[in-house]
């Protein structure tokens, strides 16, 4: 496939890259002009806007963990406080220059964030919020009671050095430039992550941790590191905030933590500008609307309520919804006719033209791809789910795993792929002992898998979801995501991942009309095939499919058979759980039958089919 | 002195426990934390105190206050929670909307009754009981008594009645429960009403000992919430236990460390609790059982079925 074809198959680009680059330059220039204006405006206006900017940094940093990875942290006011108090104490007590204090404060908040994150991710959802809220409360109690923090009185703000006299008349307030620079840095880092190949992976961790883990992502570590990054940004906000007047414990209490979350939700969670809009709105509201303070509070509360009830996705979320609608109308008006035909056809499947790159597998073809010996596993119930099961899968074969419901098939593949650890027995993957290894280590050994019920990121396109499967095929996605748009290698990888993903979708029979559709809008069968594509995209040597045919039409079943055969031709070993016995005995070389956690028979497909015991426990006479 | 600290702690802990149960009953059914629970307590207290200023009798004002807190809670569900849940059942948007209601209630009360404190009817607060050198007013004793009766009553209702069992079904999977013909909305309305009523009762119990102020909801809301975390969020009775533990700890800290320690000591306890058992102290019964069972399963001749 040539480069031009790849471009044509991609989603329609609204603006050319050169135009886009121009728009970015204009935006950055406008940002500098605004900062310049702010540097020269009255100290009252400056005070308001700089506080708003500090909270914008806070809200952006919180959205990175809350919106993108679903960790609703209430630790952020505490981290904010560490940044602000840290700067003030270092400067006033230890006479450290504020610019030397900045990296120290960032490092301190990052380390604290890593610890808090590591302790809190053991629990999820509401418990995560509560555990992190406790952190903020502790920090607040310490601030109110320690001598070095000035107790309830707090600390005066450190003085921020002015520009040298020669340029200070030209640039104005140095603090305005510093805070504006902090905000710019935060926006740059977060928008970079949002445009990187890491972003779909983070959403996958949020929505379907299993799917991400099966793609080779170290989900817990990623969460903790992201929390550390978010904490460092909160520390940056604290540094900027410390120069804006007296700091007191009351500014960083649990209510402040909740307020930051409110900013994110009100502005639009998991959007680029939503957190900024929310932060500006909440910090400026009491100043702009100057009526009786009690009525003002009531109005404030009513706005909370009204926005959440009528526009739960927040200000910016609402605009995005309208934008999507408009773009959809526009697309239908322009390219609708071509798209409509494919969508109306019975399955929407292109004829499968699978062309997998030949995969050699490990050099040593003599050892089996997978070998399980005496595997025993119990969930704790009265009978073990698996007892002493042996399973040997030859290199390059298609191996069926069948049995009645509850016979332990899914438990078996969960053990093989590292999601569960057997209580007894050994598992060898491509000659490497693998029982007890993490899931992501299995992908390093060349194994990929699908799940019985596919859960993918609904707000991303099928192609972006498939791209998650490429995560460990590219080096340093995590660290490069911090400066993704400006790295030529990263831009190249993005393009390559997109075209590889679309290629993988095409291989399972899903053409370009599907690859740019959101998973939320696709039928179940297409979702199953997308999952298959996500497992195949990283050219695994071993593929494990848990009921890949569930919900597929007869035509699609035939197409999956074809896909498995072309994978076999490319050298891939496949293990497939399925209830459609005709499919199993048609496509598999070897079949293993389980019943009630015990091995009934394993062998060549024809022999297994003829075995009277197999007929008795599963096939029927 | 220790006895005095403990009984004083129990009496204030019972109030925190009632507020915590108000949180927990709502959470039990709807998986929502109603952050305006403290403000519902305040509403009941302010209505009783405000009407008493106009010389209404306590027998009239107290029922009115309780009804107001229950009805207020139902309105919160209908206006601030239900629309949000119908958009996305798993988002935290209810945090923002119930917090909005809390702000409106506190400021509204301040508009109506002013920001300074009002007197609450003394009720049973004028007579003390002395035992073994410790003293408590009848009002405090009544608070503990009411808390015990309500805890036992709710626990029996939850575990013995069909309604209680259906509530578990709803909290686990509202969609499936709904398809089984359970009126999920009615259960949520009742949960909010009971939660509001518990907050109101806590208000009536604490009013004579404390003060009536539009902003008192913050204090009791936060302590009730901490009690909820100490006790564990999954069972209303456990949250009452959390309240009692919290109350005693605060009282002991104020007596033996210094009065300011009451501000930070409870939180130290909460951290310790969350580090040891992330799901609360009174869930650890299950933890202990599991631990014993796992030791048991290591031993030979114990039936292989034990966990």
Topology:
The complex is a heterodimer of chains A (621) and B (307).
Chain A: H1 3-9, H2 17-40, H3 43-69, H4 76-92, H5 98-120, H6 126-145, H7 165-171, H8 174-195, H9 198-207, H10 209-214, H11 219-242, H12 254-267, H13 274-288, H14 293-310, H15 314-344, E1 370-377, E2 386-393, E3 398-402, H16 409-416, E4 424-429, E5 432-433, H17 439-444, E6 447-449, H18 462-468, H19 477-480, H20 488-507, H21 512-515, H22 524-536, E7 542-546, H23 554-569, E8 573-577, H24 581-587, E9 590-595, E10 598-604, H25 605-610, H26 612-619
Parallel strand pairs in A: 3-8, 3-9, 6-7, 7-8
Antiparallel strand pairs in A: 1-2, 1-4, 4-5, 9-10
Chain B: H1 2-30, H2 37-53, H3 58-87, H4 93-113, E1 128-131, E2 134-137, H5 138-160, H6 162-172, H7 174-179, H8 184-206, H9 216-231, H10 236-256, H11 261-276, H12 284-298
Antiparallel strand pairs in B: 1-2
Structure characterization notes:
The complex is a heterodimer of chains A (621) and B (307). With 621 residues, chain A is an alpha/beta fold. Chain A has 26 helices and ten strands. Chain A starts with a helix and ends with a helix. Chain B is mostly helical and 307 residues long. Helix content of chain B is 74%, strand content 3%. In chain B, α1 (2-30) runs parallel beside α5, α1 (2-30) packs antiparallel against α10 (236-256) and α3 (58-87) runs antiparallel to α4. The N and C termini of chain B lie far apart (46 Å).
């Amino acid at each position: 496939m040539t480069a031009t074809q790849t471009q044509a198959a991609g989603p329609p680009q609204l603006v050319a890259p050169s135009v886009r680059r121009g728009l970015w330059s204009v935006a950055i220039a406008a940002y500098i002009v605004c900062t310049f204006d702010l540097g020269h405006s009255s100290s009252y206006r400056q005070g308001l806007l700089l506080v708003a900017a500090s909270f914008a940094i806070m809200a952006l940093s919180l959205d990175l963990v809350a919106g993108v990875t679903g960790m609703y942290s209430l630790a952020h006011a505490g981290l904010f406080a560490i940044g602000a108090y840290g700067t003030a104490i270092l400067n006033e007590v230890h006479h450290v220059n504020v610019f030397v204090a900045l990296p120290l404060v960032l490092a301190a908040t990052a380390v604290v964030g890593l610890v808090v994150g590591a302790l809190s991710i053991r629990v999820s959802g509401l418990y995560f919020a509560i555990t992190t809220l406790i952190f903020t409360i502790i920090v607040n109690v310490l601030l109110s009671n320690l001598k070095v923090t000035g107790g309830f009185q707090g600390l005066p703000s450190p003085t921020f050095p002015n520009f040298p006299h020669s340029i200070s008349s030209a640039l104005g307030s140095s603090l305005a430039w510093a805070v504006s620079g902090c905000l710019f840095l935060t926006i740059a880092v977060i928008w970079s992550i949002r445009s990187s190949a890491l972003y779909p992976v983070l959403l996958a961790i949020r929505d379907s941790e299993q799917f991400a883990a099966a793609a080779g992502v170290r989900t817990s570590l990623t969460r903790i590191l992201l929390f550390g990054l978010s904490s460092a940004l909160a520390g940056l906000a604290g540094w900027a905030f410390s120069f804006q007047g007296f700091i007191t414990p009351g500014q960083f209490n649990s209510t402040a933590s909740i307020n930051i979350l409110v900013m994110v939700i009100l502005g639009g969670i998991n959007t680029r500008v939503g957190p900024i809009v929310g932060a500006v709105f909440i910090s400026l509201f009491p100043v702009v609307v100057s009526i009786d303070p009690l009525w003002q509070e009531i109005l404030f509360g009513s706005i909370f309520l009204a926005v959440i009830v009528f526009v739960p996705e927040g200000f910016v979320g609402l605009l995005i919804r309208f934008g999507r609608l408009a773009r959809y109308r526009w697309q239908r008006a322009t390219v609708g006719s071509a798209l409509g035909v494919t969508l109306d056809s019975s399955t929407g499947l292109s004829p499968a033209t699978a062309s997998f790159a030949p995969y050699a597998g490990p050099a040593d073809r003599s050892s089996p791809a997978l070998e399980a010996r005496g595997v025993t596993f119990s969930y704790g119930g009265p009978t073990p789910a698996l007892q002493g099961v042996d399973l040997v899968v030859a290199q390059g074969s298609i191996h069926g795993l069948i049995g009645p419901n509850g016979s332990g098939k899914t438990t078996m593949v969960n053990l093989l792929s590292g999601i569960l650890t057997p209580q007894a027995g050994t598992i060898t993957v491509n000659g490497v002992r693998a029982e007890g290894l993490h899931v992501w280590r299995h992908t390093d050994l060349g194994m990929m898998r699908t799940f019985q019920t596919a859960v993918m990121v609904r707000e991303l396109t099928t192609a972006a979801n498939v791209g998650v499967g490429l995560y460990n095929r590219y080096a340093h996605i995590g660290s490069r995501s911090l400066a993704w748009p400006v790295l030529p290698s990263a831009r190249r990888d993005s393009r390559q991942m997109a075209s590889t993903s679309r290629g993988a979708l095409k291989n399972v029979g899903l053409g370009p009309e599907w690859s740019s559709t959101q998973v939320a809008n696709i039928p179940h069968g297409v979702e199953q095939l997308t999952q298959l594509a996500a497992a195949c995209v990283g050219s695994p040597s071993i593929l494990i499919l848990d009921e890949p045919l569930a919900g597929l039409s007869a035509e699609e079943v035939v197409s999956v058979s074809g896909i498995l055969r072309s994978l076999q031709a490319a050298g891939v070993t496949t293990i497939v759980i399925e209830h459609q016995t005709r499919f199993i005995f048609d496509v598999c070389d070897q079949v293993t039958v389980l019943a009630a956690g015990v091995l009934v028979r394993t062998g060549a497909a024809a022999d297994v089919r003829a075995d009277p015991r197999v007929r008795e426990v599963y096939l029927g006479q | 002195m220790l006895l005095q600290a403990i009984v004083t702690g129990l009496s204030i802990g019972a109030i925190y426990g009632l507020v915590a149960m108000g949180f927990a009953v709502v959470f039990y059914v709807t998986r929502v934390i109603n952050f305006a629970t403290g403000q519902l307590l305040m509403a009941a207290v302010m209505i009783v105190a405000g009407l008493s200023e106009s010389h209404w009798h306590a027998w009239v004002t107290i029922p009115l206050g309780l009804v107001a807190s229950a009805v207020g809670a139902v309105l919160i569900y209908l206006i601030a929670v239900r629309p949000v849940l119908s958009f996305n059942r798993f988002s935290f948007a209810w945090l923002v909307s119930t917090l909005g209601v809390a702000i409106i209630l506190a400021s509204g009360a301040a508009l109506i009754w002013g920001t300074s404190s009002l007197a609450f009817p003394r009720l049973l607060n004028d007579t003390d009981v002395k035992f073994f050198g410790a003293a408590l007013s009848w009002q405090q004793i009544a608070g503990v008594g009411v808390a015990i009766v309500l805890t036992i009553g709710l626990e029996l209702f939850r575990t013995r009645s069909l309604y209680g069992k259906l509530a578990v079904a709803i909290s686990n999977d509202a969609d499936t429960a709904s398809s089984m013909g359970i009126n999920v909305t009615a259960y949520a309305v009742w949960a909010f009403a009971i939660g509001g009523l518990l907050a109101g009762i806590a208000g009536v119990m604490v009013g004579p000992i404390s003060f009536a102020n539009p902003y008192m909801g913050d204090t009791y809301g936060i302590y009730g919430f901490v009690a909820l975390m100490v006790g564990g969020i999954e069972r209303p009775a456990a949250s009452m236990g959390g309240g009692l533990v919290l109350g005693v700890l605060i009282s002991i800290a104020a007596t033996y460390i210094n009065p300011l320690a009451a501000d930070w000591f409870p939180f130290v306890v909460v951290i310790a609790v969350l580090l040891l058992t992330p799901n609360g102290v009174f869930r650890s019964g299950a933890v202990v059982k599991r631990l014993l069972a796992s030791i048991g399963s290591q031993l030979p001749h114990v039936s292989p079925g034990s966990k």
